[in-house]
Amino acid sequence: MMRLQTVTNSAIALALAVVAAPALGQAVGMQVVDTSGAPVGTVTAIRGDNVQIKTDKHDALLPKASFRVDQGKLIFGMTQAQLDTQVEAAAAASQKAIVAGATVNGSAGTAIGKIDAVDNGQVTMTLTSGKRIAVPITGLRGNADGTVTIGYTADQIEALTSGSGGTPASTTPGGSTAGK
Questions:
Q1: For labeling, which of 36, 132, 146, 148 is most exposed (least CB within 10 Å)?
Q2: Kind and range of the H or E element at 136?
Q3: How confident is the model at residue 8 (pLDDT cuts 50, 70, 90)?
Q4: pLDDT at 23
Q5: Domain with 27 in it
Q6: For residue 54, how many C-alpha atoms fall within 13 Å in the half-sphere facing its CB?
Q7: Would you say 40 and 33 are in contact if contact means Cβ atoms under 8 Å apart?
Q8: How many domains does the chain have?
Q9: 113 — pLDDT class (breaks 50, 70, 90)
Q10: How many CA atoms lie within 13 A of 16 on its CB side?
Q11: Which CATH number goes with the domain that contains 100?
Q12: CA distances in angstroms from 137 to 82, 101, 128, listed in the order given
């Protein structure tokens, strides 16, 4: 009997996920409101398990689990002002971490190097292989622990730098959400 209950619960959870998935999968352009019904923003993209919404000031990438669908709208637990404040605080904290001496991790969490300098929107770093590269600051995300993350794995960075003499300055790493 216990096994049947587990299967039944799993089936119910799967059925609910299937019902919610098409709604979120087709959510681009959908209005996002807070629990009182006030506007928070509009869905601009679905990125994997995240929903990107545009508020009056910012683009925010938030987990799908943060929303529920109700009467053709996505309900979110924060007001627009609260979300804007959180985005601004996260961007400020992120920028504080992007400083000379900070460890840079690849998207898989492996340390790939250290920041040498931050100047005019560019970050120069020395990779663990000894190569130096410059990337746009927008391609990096500062973390609460003082490290910085780039949207490439260590292997991808090495592949990018192996044929270019170590300066992929025109390359913008993917996966960054800082300040957006």
A1: 36
A2: strand 132-136
A3: very low
A4: 55
A5: 2-85
A6: 8
A7: yes
A8: 2
A9: very high
A10: 9
A11: 3.90.50.10
A12: 26, 15, 19
- The answer for residues whose C-beta is within 8 angstroms of residue 88's C-beta and 6 or more apart is 58
**Buried residues in 106-137 as b, exposed as e (16+ CB within 10 A):** bbeeeebbebeebeeeebbbbbeeebebbbeb
pTM here is 0.59
Q: Name residue, tokens 């683009």.
A: 59
Q: In terms of pLDDT, which residue wins out, 126 or 154?
A: 126
Mean pLDDT, rounded, for 46-66: 92
Interior angle at CA 129, CA 123 and CA 134, nearest 5? 15
Asked if the structure places residue 30 within a domain, the reply is: yes
Query: Contact 106/117 with Cβ under 8 angstroms?
Result: no
Same domain, 79 and 104: no
